[in-house]
Amino acid sequence: MISQVFTTSIAGEPELVLETHHLHLEAPNWSQDGRALILNGDGVLWRFDLATNSLDRIPISGVPELNNDHVLDPDGEHVFLSAHDGHIYRAPLSGGRGVRVTNETGRLHFLHGVSPDGGTLAYVGVEAEGDNRWARANVFTIPSQGGPDQQFTFGSAPADGCEFSPNGSWIYFNTEAFSPGHAQIARIPAEGGEPEQLTFDERVNWFPHLTPDGSAAVYLSYPAGTLGHPGGLDVELCVVADDWTDPVRRLPLWGGQGTINVPSWSPAGDRFAYVAYQP
Predict the structure, then answer these.
(1) Nearest CA to 221 among 208, 14, 277?
(2) Most buried of 9, 60, 220, 224, CB within 10 angstroms?
(3) In the structure, what pLDDT confidence band is assigned to residue 133 with cuts at 50, 70 and 90?
(4) Domain count along the chain
């Protein structure tokens, strides 16, 4: 499998910045200084320097093997990480020992967002039911230094990809609450309330990411009938304005899981990063 990391503006041509046959890279964040992309691959975290084209492992200790859910702390010095033990950790972005944030709840914790002030994490809590490990997936928050969890969605309709708006007033996410088996983008007030549906189409839509000023967003769109968020499909990245009407751009690629699971806009909001794959 070939991993191809691209950056692109809202309307411009994608630029291939990294290609590798040796690592299955996923989920690029953009560093706050705009100089690097942070990605996961082979269960660890990597830093890709956009000026020198160097890809270096970030030496994080005390954390189990990572999945592809990682979000940078607004302080610019730390990163929040989801690990395969089902917990979320905070670690120095330059490398060092991680500290667990999440509680022993019986849920699996999948990180997707951090509030603009860095004080709160938004995550998806997954609970098992019998042999179904993924029976319930709901949106929760937790203080980024640890503390009590708060639940935002309820029931068995799966939710995922929860991310704060730049002003901290909303949590954006994808959910099947409006149409079982058919994920659409929604948002919910950050203080709690009723979800508001934002996309209304036949495609299956995941992982909304807003620009730093909130003027646009990009999300991952699967073909109609797709269950979950698998990899290895013909998908689209859809760019919308802040009114969430029809996309102003559809970018087709081969990917899905790993393509754009995490916030991936540049600090200036003029470009976003994503991963495409080639068999």
Answers:
(1) 208
(2) 220
(3) low
(4) 1
